[in-house]
Amino acid sequence: MARYQVTAGKITFTVDDSLLYTESDEWLKVEGQRVRVGITDYAQKQLKDVVGVELPKVGQEIQEGMDLAVLESVKATAEVYSPVTGVVVEVNERLSEEPELVNREPYDSGWIAVLEVKEQLDTSKLLDHAKYVESVKKRAH
User: Fold this and answer.
1) How far is CA 47 from CA 21, 26, 32, 104, in A?
2) Distance between CA atoms of 49 and 71, rounded to whole angstroms?
3) What φ, ψ does residue 7 adopt, rounded to 5°?
């Protein structure tokens, strides 16, 4: 696992080469049949200061592409989309009291939820760190 600093447009952000990414700026860490989800460093920098997080409910079934969580920042409200279909088995309760963790540690203690996937995980729509950086650079210009 390594983390890299990348610049796209006017924003310098970090990517982690051990994670998978979506075009909509979520990251995934595959842990067996479970997937830990958060937003990328690039996304949190776009949002600015996150002041509230609406978490999903444990036990909730979420379809790929559905809203998983809502982040409120001083700048905007943003939906976090589920990159997989699964059942929410864990949420990051710390975010209720410390939503700024999304900004401070997006790849560590700023994670949002863990989903358990029933089917074999289809990673064909997901991006590795290099493809994610390409995607951000295209959007930043």
Assistant:
1) 18, 13, 31, 12
2) 10
3) -115, 130
Write down the residue that tokens 């989903």 correspond to.
Answer: 115
Q: What are the 10-residue block averages of pLDDT along the chain, 141 residues in total? A: 93 97 97 96 96 98 97 94 97 98 98 94 93 95 74
Q: What is the pLDDT of residue 88?
A: 98
CATH assignment of 24-121, among 2.40.50.100, 3.40.50.1820, 2.60.120.10, 3.30.2130.10 = 2.40.50.100
Q: What gap in Å lies between CA 6 and CA 16, rounded to an integer? A: 11
Q: How many CA atoms lie within 13 A of 19 on its CB side?
A: 27
Do 58 and 91 touch, CB atoms closer than 8 A? yes
What is the CA 99 to chain-centroid distance, rounded?
14
The pLDDT assigned to 11 comes to 93
Domain regions of the chain by residue span: 24-121
Q: Which tokens go with 56?
A: 């999903």
User: Residue 108's pLDDT is what?
Assistant: 97
